[in-house]
């Protein structure tokens, strides 16, 4: 992809808008008030002003924002003497906060309370024009404001700003533009993935569509955009949906990754590990709907994602360079970019990095580009599969044509044993066993063993080969083994001749040389030199074995 491509041009406006939003200057609490005090209470139920108003452990502080790591404590701020006398807004720049309360205590001791947060119905929020918890502050002589935060033990790291209403409205407009830009890119890709899944009957596209949908939903839930659009009157959903969609995203990513990379076929041990991780995630998903400690679930998911992303990258690059899977190049680029964005985000969640736009929103900012790269790799995979299917169809057609040529050629047998046997189906079944299971690579394969797999007797199988294909059993094995050797030399020219011989089913290099030259007319060393003279990435995708032919 180059900077002028349509996919990149579609992503650039979102990135530009996000950067503009991050560059907006705002006043912090310490710049908006002459006096700011802080208080922490480990008891999450410390929600009443009377319990803390006269506490002796208030300490002066000058916070630009929150930075609590994973904690179930309640945080208080006491604000006095606004610097500006015009009406202002205190804005907490993190949308998914459980409970946020603002108490205004007048000089006469009168108390006014305002509440916001995802545990409160949105219609009761004092400021409903934006998704950030915000409170209007009208300066009055002698008034004191108390700000209370509680968010159920999740990581709290975000700015707390003092804005005018106009500044707040401009920020809301920028946020809305970003939301619509995300939906305009991601949702069409999701719809296209499901259309491909239905049209091609390939589950990998459905897994990708589900992965991208749950990831988009999780990002919207995690950053608070979904609360306003989907469940403004359901605080319980808002409280549990982040970890729920995170688990669903993880499961779908594993399903998609295993299917897309053909992990079961190429790396069976790694596939078994991925299956175990799937079951672990399946067990964690229902816990998100319970009252289980959120910080434990969050840390568990962080660990799973760190381990999985590193494992994904290792597997992808191993398959790219070891098995020459060209369709994985864009996939590898997508995961690499996602990993580079995820590392600062994970360090931020663990409290190692402080708040910044790349640390807090990096994976979300890079998500559209990752989705486009994944979509491109899926298209590449589709073209590869289509080419392989065309090659297999040509092989089957050649087998059937050869079978048809022998149908009317008579029989060497005075009394045929093939009466009542569907010869066409039997020959196709034979080719499926040889091509799909590659039993010809077994050194001790016998006529009887192969006949048993077909469900016929050795005499019936021998007559089938001789009368319909004009081949003996050794000739049949030789055809398939030479075809496999030819494919290996073209796909992996770095292999030695003895490696090719053994992997193709030959028991010695001499038998390999004699058999190959007998069918192809040239020595295998000549063919492998020709293969090495071409680009090493060239791969024969037309199938494994050449068309069957006799001596």
Shape: elongated
SSE order? HEHEHEEEEEEEEEHHHHHHHHHHHHHHHH
Task: Evaluate the radius of gyration.
Answer: 33 Å
Number of domains: 3
Mean pLDDT: 79
* Spans of at least 5 consecutive residues with low confidence: 1-23, 406-415, 535-551
Distance between the termini: 50 Å
Major sheet: order of its strands?
3-2-5-10-7-8
Q: What is the number of strand segments?
A: 11
CATH structural architecture of the largest domain: Up-down Bundle
CATH topology call of the largest domain: Rhopdopsin 7-helix transmembrane proteins
The helix count comes to: 19
The main pleated sheet reads as:
6 strands, antiparallel
Helix proportion: 55-70%
Oligomer: single chain
Strand content is 5-15%
Secondary-structure map:
Blueprint: H1 6-22, E1 27-28, H2 29-32, E2 33-41, H3 49-52, E3 59-60, E4 65-70, E5 74-82, E6 88-92, E7 99-105, E8 111-116, E9 134-137, E10 144-150, E11 155-163, H4 165-200, H5 203-222, H6 225-230, H7 235-260, H8 263-266, H9 268-287, H10 294-322, H11 329-349, H12 357-407, H13 423-437, H14 447-454, H15 458-469, H16 473-491, H17 497-504, H18 509-520, H19 524-533
Antiparallel strand pairs: 1-11, 2-3, 2-5, 4-11, 5-10, 6-9, 6-11, 7-8, 7-10
Helix pairs in contact: 1-4, 1-12, 4-5, 4-12, 5-7, 5-12, 7-9, 7-10, 10-11, 11-12, 12-13, 14-15, 16-17, 16-19
Can you offer a commentary on this structure?
This protein has 19 helices and 11 strands. By secondary structure, the protein is an alpha+beta fold. The strands form 2 sheets. Strands 3-2-5-10-7-8 form a 6-stranded antiparallel β-sheet. Helix content is 58%, strand content 12%.
